[in-house]
Every structure is written in C-alpha cells, then in structure tokens.
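Our example copied in:
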Amino acid sequence: MSKPSHAETRHKAIRPIGGYVLADEPLELNAGRPTSTIEVVNTGDRPVQVGSHFHFYEVNRYLEFDRDAAFGMRLDIPATTAVRFEPGDRKTIALVPFGGKQRVQGFNGLVDGWAGTGAPGYQPERSEAAARAARRGFKSRPATSEGDGTGTPATSRKPSAKERRG
C-alpha cells in the first residue's frame, strides 16, 4: 500500500466523515422566490426573538405589523438564525413564503392548515386565523407607505443564480 499524497491527506483532513464538499462561491438563500418587506414594532416590555422558520403571522402578540401580509410567510434569513426585537424597536424585515405544500401548524394556535397564496378564493384558514388572532389580542395594522398604496406590502422576487450570471 502506497503512502497517500499531500493533497489526498489534506483533502481528507478537512472533510468530516459523511461531510459535503461545497462550491467556493457563496450560496444565495431563496433565490428566485418572492419576498415581501414589512415594518414591525415591538410594543411590549420584553425582547422578542423570532426564529428563521417560525410562521411570522403567529409571532408574539405584542409585535405590531400587517399580520395579513405575513400569512404563510417566514423570515428570509438563514436556517437556525433569528431576529431580535427589543422593546420599542421598529424594524423592516423581509419575509418569504413557506415552500412545499405550505401546510402550517402555528405555535400560537392561530393556523393549522394550508397557508398558501395560490388560490385566493379558497382561504378559510386565513379568515379563521384572523378571527382567532383578534379574539386573542394579537396586534395588527395594515401596511403603510411601504406598499403600493392599497395596503399591499412591497413585493419583489429574488433573481436566481442562473439569472444573475446571464
């Protein structure tokens, strides 16, 4: 058995067992997916931290924002990260729709069903969630100047890596 070359030894040393070798260029999150921006204000007296895959519609009742615009959406940040809202903080955040079948089981019990946006005529879960949120004191306000003037949040689509390269 011959001794491995320096390159082979180095390659094996930096890759853990079962690990992946990724491209040198950075990966872009949610490329080609639609995004929306909304303004959020923490009206409570405690900090609130929201994780990357939490259904934003159901975040803490003292975070005030356009909840309707956040239905079926999560933060547009890397997995396992979070955004922290200190008392009185006002932040503009980016949201992206859930992928897959868009079935959401919310952790505050407001939503338990399909949370997609593809069929606006079929949204019983959305109207039921709005009624539950109002009954339980979740703060909400319509979009202001950030949208198109109709209460719709500013929306865009991230170009995919292929589109950016031309």
Remarks:
- The first strand starts at residue 34 and ends at 42.
- The first helix runs from residue 6 to 14.
